[in-house]
Batch of 4 targets.
Target 1
Amino acid sequence: MKNLLKKELSELLNKQMLLGLLVSFILIVMLGSVMTSTVSGTLDTSGEVHIIDLDNTDFTQQIIAKLEEKDYTVKTVSENKAYELILSEQNWSDAAVLPAGMTDLLYNQHQACQIDSVKALKTTSAMSIAFAENSSADYVISVMKELLSETYLTEDLSFLESPVSVVSYTTANGKNVQADSAEIISSLAMFDQLMPLVLFLLIVLTAQTIITAVAAEKTDKTLEILLASPVPRITIIGAKMLAALITAVIYAVVYGTGFLISMLTNVNRAAENIDIGEAFANLIHMQEAVRTLELQIPFLGWVGVIVHLLLTIGIALTASMILGGLVEDAKGSQTASIPILVCTMFPYVLSMVSDIRGMGSVKYLLYLIPFTHTFISTSCLRFHDMGLFFGGMIYQLIFLIAIACAALKLYQSDILFTHRFANKRTKN
Amino acid sequence: MNYALDVQHLAKSYGKKQAVKDVSFQIQEGEIFGLMGMNGAGKTTILRMLATLLRPDSGDAFIAGNSIVKNPEKVRACISYLPDEAGAYKTMTGKNYLQFIAGLYFKEVPRQKECVALGKEICGLGDALEQKINTYSRGMTRKLVLARTVMTKPKLAILDEPTSGLDVLNSLDIRKTIRKCAEEYGTAFLLSSHHMQEVSSTAHKAAVMKDGQFLAEGTPQELLQKYQAETLEEVFEKAVRNA
């Protein structure tokens, strides 16, 4: 038993496997750190309350003092300017607007008032909705209710049940529209969630298919037969890559369709509980909001996204050919795809939970991963970051050319069979 | 003289280990040349260099006049290589496999058909060619891959341990096929083998290798005379032990 266990372990825990494990460990720790810093960054800013104080009375000063008492960092401006300008100038993600005459309405006329909640939309990632829930307006309303309760403690005023109502505004691309940012994100979620998922599946499945296929051909020695045949090596590589691409597309279409059906089923289930007329009106309103904020992607933009997709798939295919070529046996193929898996997982997960473009210095590390540029391509188009969109495209193209040259070189070299770099040829 | 294969001072190292050291030999059209040697003697490295899979560190070899260093593409058009224990695509039928290989060598359909017909005849698998390769025995697979190696009528067929792991009858069939193809189509064969009997009964010429070098080379009769031996096994033992 001891001998058998030792033999099994020595076969399973080989150098290649341990190296793959180490690389995965380092990358997962890095991913965890990035995720933690992203989330803590969000929490840090959520402790900040931004107020556009257009009323500027003792009551609004009391609101600010009460918030500061609760350890919130309160930042205020009193300028009556367009919301999008104020948020942009102050670099705020949101603000609560206390309108002129608010105090008078509450204290003298004993009427409910209305405040505006403005949010700057910087990403359309679905998870950002969760982070966007703690807005400045929420904190302000909470404090206002406390103060009003204290003031009217002895009086019976029915308006205290709902003294403040909120109107949501969203700003993006230097525009402002009366709409809730979460609803705008939800209206775009169908595509903005589906495309990254399909891309993730395409890359991972393509990589695994190619690496396994090349490893199997090396083990069966059919690769040697092919490479010694009169067919140009670029044709052999191309055929294998194309076949893997077709297989991966089939997988991606099946999985993507499944995901879409599941999403539509959820939408239908939700629709059963709401008024159809109201839902339709809301849909029209959201489309109008997306148009006003210039978040829609034009036809040529979609063409650009497809170019990004093709470049990413090309890189994944070529990198897989290289990794497959370097694999010594079928066992090695299990761990060989880890670098591609991790390089896909990083930008995929991070683009789903946050805005990669606003991640500080970490974003530059992520930009080095060519796949990142495709995951953020729609975001770049929606938020008019054309420099990054085209820069990413050019970077991916250069990366693809470089990696294709490396693959061709590998398949014309000894390394494929010797797993060593060739000696320099000496002159006769 | 125009040789099917002319090897000149071929050498190859893997890091610090010299796998092949300054090896030269020639094979004429229709000639069968056997490389004998222990594991790690450098036989497979020579075959892989001639199949243009490995690049020599120095020296060159010419196959039908084409340099393996300067014109590997031209070399691939006139050779056929059978690696040691090579398999075939298991999901294909035997017939589909022969058609697939013929398609790699010839663009014209009539030539492909001619090639497949020859392959069918050489392998002698009959109706089994309609079955998937994953149902084949080791001997059947070996006959199929040998047939695909010679059906294109290459100038030089490079065979690494062609009968490795086969029973006596299957080994005899394979040897007969090699001799027949050499005689009928003028194909030159370079084969490596551990079996002295195989080399003795098949090859016109043979060489004994150790540590990447040729210790002895000649016809089986010349080798027997040189080492005053009765069998090639004896020749091999004396050559290797005296080296």
Note: Chain A is about 70% helix and 10% strand.
Target 2
Amino acid sequence: MADEYNTSPQKNFEALWKILDENYCFFDYKGIDWDEVHDKYSLQIDESMYEYKLFQVLSDMVNELKDGHINLNSSFFFSSYEGWYTEYPSNFSWGILNDKYLVDAARGGNYNEIRYTRFAGNQIGYIYYGSFRESMLETELDSIFHFFENCKALVIDVRDNGGGSLINSDRLASRFLTEKTLCGYIQHKTGKGRSDFSDPYPIYLKPSHNTLWLKPVMVLTNRRCYSASNNFVSKMRELPNVRTLGGSTGGGSGFPFTSELPNGWSIRFSTSPILDVNMQHTEFGIEPDVEINLLPQDIENRRDALLEAAMELLLSGV
Amino acid sequence: MNEGTLIGVGTSHVKDTYLSPFNYSGWGLRILNERMKITGLGRDNFSRQQIINVDISSTKNPAENVNDFAAFADYALGYHYRLDVVPGFRVLTGMSAHLSGGFIYNIRNGNNPLSAKIDVDGGFSLITLWNFRMNKLSFTLRYQGELPLAGVFFSPEYGASYYEMFNVGNLSDVLAFNSFHNKFALKNYVTLDIPVESFTIRLGYLNSLYYSDAKSIQTRIISNSFMIGWVKEFIPLGSKRIKYKNRVKSSYY
């Protein structure tokens, strides 16, 4: 690839196709014929096209990968594939949760957007963790678990958590186990071939040296749990005393890298598959242990059916 | 002992395909300290040289909308056999060991923002020193070349993330033997010592080339620094040589 700045549509199209050809990790799993995609979209490229049109064609091309980790970014547009959640029930209403359940909730996290409170006469602890871009110090987590000291169970709500840092999600997950536990595997590309992958390497979750929570936990999920949030759910469901409730997560199990085109646009893409304990991909999501949907009548009645169901199950000890 | 400390600025070109397929260009800043002394080996025919070098750079991609920041520190220890070819002209040949480490940081990349570099190697070292007089003043012109032959360097696999290596703990295959099949590095260093009253000023030019191609990751770092500094010539306290002042001779001049 030439090192010069180049705005040629043809050069940028070929550069983008090649970057994904050599680095994207789900061609085989998704059954995508990337050569066929090249042939289909190269017909739409001509040297006289405006950059806005080029951006649209390139966005359409990368969206053939049906991957929420794919983002093409220019100075004027940002493309993202949204099909992983738009065709699914949301199972979440921030308005209902915030107005009805979180009125007195405390705040935490580096952006002060994590909410935590107690329900059912202080029997149920509750944390809303809306993004793993939010990080909490170990001491802050300790104080939250101290706040839940007399609770008999805990709800961790990661609905609409679109991901962030695996370090943040691992820090929280490490509070719910006493022994080092196998939680999945990771692979990476070892070369530019589409099937050049390393052997799966085990991912272990180790217990935190700080306060642990060993009573029942229910993790609330919906389709917009993506990336680090999907990984959090994948790990949590391997832990004792933890169940998941709600809707399927959105997936996004490829660890993303970023590269760039000759015209300066950036491209982010999945490059390292993270597998579950059965060495299966979770790129298309993880089904919950207990499926509960938020129905139109729940919204009409300003009722969070998933949270209510989780509390009911935890209180009944089922 | 001859000690020189120089600071310099210049151009820098950085390409690391772990971060981007493109060459980034910009400026660099360098600080270098070198010490040379005659050892007691071989009737004072051997000298030892130590170089500590720190350089930082800020470079931009071809579209000039993203920056890389790079910082490297390296230490070199060389032993040279000294040969007085003709009066005023001396050649020093020998071997040197290098330890260097640093990183290139791309401000835009989310999960692959950093490419770390650690190299340990040994190789040829050549110095030529030419002392000459002009207008009753003594000048010294030096050329030095450093060419690593073989060593070990940090070399992650093509798509391995730092999360996998350092958080998950998969550190297998992160080191590689290096020689000319996968790495070429060369430093060309030219200095001129100029006496100014009771001081000696050292002007320098350092050209540093580094190429590696391992596990489908290519790195190319080229810098050119123009440097200026000062030189001290002194006898370290406690040296046995201080007892024989008439036998003391400079390692450099």
Note: Chain B has a mean pLDDT of 93.
Target 3
Amino acid sequence: MREISAEMERELVVIGGGPAGLAAAIAAAENGVAVDDILILEREPELGGILLQCIHSGFGLHRFGEELTGPEYAARFSKKVVEMGIPSLLSTMVLTLHQMEDGCKEITAVSSAHGLIRLKARAVVLAMGCRERGRGALNIPGTRPAGIYTAGAAQKFVNIKGFMPGRRVVILGSGDIGLIMARRMTLEGAKVEVVAELMPYSGGLSRNIQQCLRDFDIPLLLSHTITRIHGKERVTGVTISQVDEKRRPIPGSEQYFACDTVLLSCGLIPENELTRQAGIPLDPVTGGAVVGENRETEMAGVFAAGNVLHVHDLVDFVSAEAELAGAGAARWLAEGDGEEFKLPIHPQGIIRYVVPQTVSLPAKEDVRLFFRVGEVVDKAAVIVENGGKVLYKGMRPRLLPGEMESVTIKAAALAGTEGGQLTVRLEKR
Amino acid sequence: MMDVAVIGAGVVGALIARELSRYQLDVCMLEKADDVAMGTSKANSAIVHAGFDCQPGSVMAKMNVRGNAMMDQLARELSVPFKRNGSMVLAFGEEDNGTLQTLLDRGIQNGVPGVEIVSGDRARELEPNISGNVTAALVAPSGGIVCPYELTIAAAGNAMDNGVRLYTGFEVVSADFADGVWTLVSAAGDQVEARYVVNAAGLFSDRVAVLLGDTEYHLFPRRGEYLLLDRDQGQMVSHTIFQCPSAMGKGILVTPTVDGNLLLGPTSENREDREDTETTADGLATVARLAAKSVPAVNLRAVITSFTGLRSCSPGHDFVIESSKNQPQLVEITGIESPGLSSAPAIAEYAVSLLKEMGLALDEKADFNPIRRPIPRFREMDIEQRRALIQEDARFGQIICRCETVTEGEIVRALHQNPPAHDLDGVKRRTRTGMGRCNGGFCTPQAVEIIARELGIPVEQVTKCGGDSRLLVGKTKEGGQDA
């Protein structure tokens, strides 16, 4: 490994050593970047990211055809990184990211072991992941006692630190981490009173609703939210109200639930403070960078993948996306940007977003478009068009906001397109 | 035996203690909460008012203008960020013009420097994001912003560095004066004897006054709810933007904070309960609606947190700072509503002068040091400063709070430096750990471990804010007791 010093230069710096960063670094090395020219920067003391606290199983079904726990899934990649000799700096926090006059990127990072480091990189992969929406952002009225945690913070306390955040729990939001924590807290001996979900549908995977709530007889109240938190020093209870179709609490529908803990699982927000600082354009809907099919952002040589780009349901897709970014970075380092035309992709109607947001023409390979819907839709055709020409049309029996969808556009289908835009829409049956 | 006991370690009590620490005196602060700045000083608009609101001739007017002028030097000595960003009061139509004129007249009478009325267009030149409906504005360049709990912590810390003692968890429940000495007894039965007593108990000062033998003061709490927005909204305005004041106060303001956030609020509602700091859906909606009237572009999706503060209002709406009419060797300070923060340095100065009039000898201490050594702020340093700091102590290289870029070194200092933090919220107020957009989701587990380690207590005993506010209830799978 090359020496770590206060001032360094590397071909590729990967910011984040979670599933996205690891897969991107491996893919970059496999596509020709010398391992010594790569550096992974990870803020935690271990590689693996948030997967390390996800000790439940269910990871890797798509990718490996078997059910792994989070740490097992992470280990498949972190072991490979170590075996390939890709260097990483742990307990290292990136503070700034800027483009320099010569087009290279300057990164400053800090750690106890190495102090303040200044890095010059030709290419960067952003893989910082996401954070949970907290109580403040949710604006839940009431007191401000101890006992209110995001589901992920509670998961870290229970699974990593070995402490119980509470014994009688109400969960707000039915995101996957909240569902997983409903089961975990139950298995650890706590009583989960109820899960309240503001929307008329769950934000989590169907399999988690079954395996984490129904299997444990934990009630799920759809179209309900917490309208008041009680308790001076520690939470003593919550008031839960039903909401109308505009998500406003319905007076008279209040129910009181005694509890000592409130867990919040109300959505994930890509952590793009560095991206914003660097001046890289973001998609207001995904909260992540605007990218092309190789996950290159609008800043040449900067790529993004995983939950920092858009929030995924399954880590298998994070890995696949990060491989596109890693391979894209390798190709960019070797060849630079081509003279391609970037065709913009626009979601329409109840399709909230599509990633990537552009596709380069002429297309060399098939392009897979990932998207999410804004409401539950039964029996609809997904249609991808260019001008009046339909490039893809396929039926879906059911589309759920909590489950990411995708369509693959053949390179051949893209070959005929020259300009305009791609639109992605649904046609209900 | 103390020379002076100050009851209450809010911004007023802490500044009085610091003022007294200049002299050869034994001084203590008695604070019922777990930390300083836990009442009105913790949650307010964080404004150093220019002084154009107060009735000319009132105690308030005098204290406000004097306190405002003292703030530069005080903030410098205590290393507390203070910014004269200027205040602006908006008029929406002709019906507000009279109010602006009244404020201008008062400002001139009160001696507020540089206050003037400008046109709506000029106001929008100064503040491009204010509403197109603004027809005129009062501008007062001496208005400023300061973090109220940071000022209190710094003042208390500097007082302690100069020999003042702080007793937290000391709720005065009885007081007795005999043979020239006050004996103050806490709820836990502890006693403090002091020759002089200053009642700076804020929202509870009328009740403490009764214990001390003065029954003529009556306070009522006025609740105010606030919304605090992320730093990306902090540049929305540079001035503190007010609407025209009413009988219920100075109206909803929109202001940057010294930490770069945007603060909206407060509502104004008289309530009986002196500890009711709940937020309400209605209150927060009112704040959002009225703030948008001043600055329509405010992005309410960027809300980081909401909170409620309680102001201690008196029926006469003027500050009371006086020698007790009924008891010897006692200074009563009550009714310190807005602009209490702005006035606090002047109130402290005046209170000490009252003590002197009563016979307290003020002999200067040769070794008084007005300069407070602050906790280093890693996030505000340049590369070389950061390198030097990490060289000195590697714990300044370990980021704990990623949103606010707070290091382990800062948290450790907060737990040991005067006045030491005892809990998570205390660490938060001193370092901003957990104050960012993730609401502590990532840093809380680590911060809790550092607190336990530094205080030498089990992790399960770490609290959010003292008392029964334990963050964790036990270990997982604890001896099968859950089975």
Note: The two ends of chain B are 55 Å apart (CA to CA).
Target 4
Amino acid sequence: MEISKRVQRVQPSGIRRFFDLVLGMKEVISLGVGEPDFITPWQIREAGIYSLEQGFTSYTSNKGLFKLRMGISRYLKSRYGLEYSPEDEILVTVGVSEGLDLVLRAIINPQDRILIPSPRYVSYGPLTELSGGIPVYLNTERQRFKLTPDIIERHVNSKAKAIILNYPANPTGISYTKKELERIKRAILKYNLICISDEIYGDLTYDFLHVPFATLAGAKNSTVYLSGFSKSYAMTGWRVGFACGPKRIIDAMTKIHQYTTMCVSITSQMAAYEALQTARSAVDEMRREYRRRREYVVDRLKELGIECVRPDGAFYVFASIKDTAFTSVDFAQRLLREQRVAVVPGTAFGEEFDGYIRISYASSFENLKEALIRIERFLKKNQRQ
Amino acid sequence: MDEILEILEKNARITPEEIAKMLNRSVPSVKNTIKRFEKQGVVLGYKTIINKELLRDENSEVRAIIEVRITPQKDVGFDKIAQRIYSFPEVKSCYLLSGTYDLLLVVEGKNIHTVSNFVAEKLAPLENVRGTTTHFLLKKYKEDGMILRHKEEDKRIAISY
């Protein structure tokens, strides 16, 4: 059986072996998890169960249950003043993952360049390649992981079609204030780029109010806003996200979605609807908890002499291990073997980030406390001579 | 509610130093705030939640929920008689309620007999008590927001992006 050249060209993740190592080991404190440690709030789970009892087991319309799209539309309006019509500007997707795939497939012609600020979430590059596009990685390390107009200027050319923003970001946790976004927006509009804005961690912003890119003056018509329920409501396994954008692009995305996915599971959609109706206070409570953990972890890392950019949101710290003698995979493997703590090597988010590890603080305070004690022990043992 | 209270309510063993880190405040300021809450009586104490269901030893206790109908006293209303009742060490909780009865008690005793004796000999004969209804507690599922069962294991896969 011959596998397509396009798929063959997509590089398998270089740290698969490390992942297998973690999964095969017991009694590990994992700070390597990319999802909330909370369980979906009960009333949301209950709504899913109730929908099953009532016999909601069918397909829904391709774009998603109308009442859910209506709920999303109302929520965006009331929280951000952002207006999207539930009829034709909102598409319910299988998480942001599907939304991202759809938008890339909908816009990419062969050889189109997609600008991707890095370090980056793992799927951006491969999905671009699978759609026939060419990812152009924009290294933001020198700007403390923040994209600036200069970086865009340096990489943009006539083939550039779109840029993928992700804020608060996985793996760095950095986000942008309105002022910073305005400057980025000017560069994006200047070069007529489509802005694909992955804002799945938007609700988990700690020091200021999250600003959706589409709310910036003049940006909405060239923005596809991607978000969902996974992180805000601790609903990763339900797989519900949404894409909002101008009718033309949502139509194009829906065309692909109707043939590939048809619709998101009705149980999950019913549960997501309940989340919008009744679970906002649970989101606020989880956000406060994450914020406390951020403060604690950042402070402890500072005590250990590990440098990191203070994250503005999400639940990750991208910590520098440049003062150690190890590569990021080495560091992670040794930490795992010697102290039973799992973190994700920086190279997972771009080859050039070998000097970093991603620490997730989506873990209980007790776990974080113990893990940091173990990291401290590890560093002492492995001090550079 | 102050965030310090939110933290302590979930876990009273977190130290002021740790709270200071979490809230990005100084240790003395956290200590002072806690002291103030203690002084004001906002924080009344720190206790351990023990799942006695798992102990099953000889000293395990039975609990009863008791509804009490009382005649309020002139000038002091329910408070005086409530005090007479809640002062018994057997009474773990005591609430004044609206509705068909007045006081709701949670009473603990070594066994059914000690609780029955308490009701028959101490509670019911009180002058202003017009009647009591005793419900013995069969099983505890959740108490003070804690679901009483073994800690659930983490169901997430140990590593993911």
Note: Residues 277 and 348 of chain A are 37 Å apart (CA to CA).
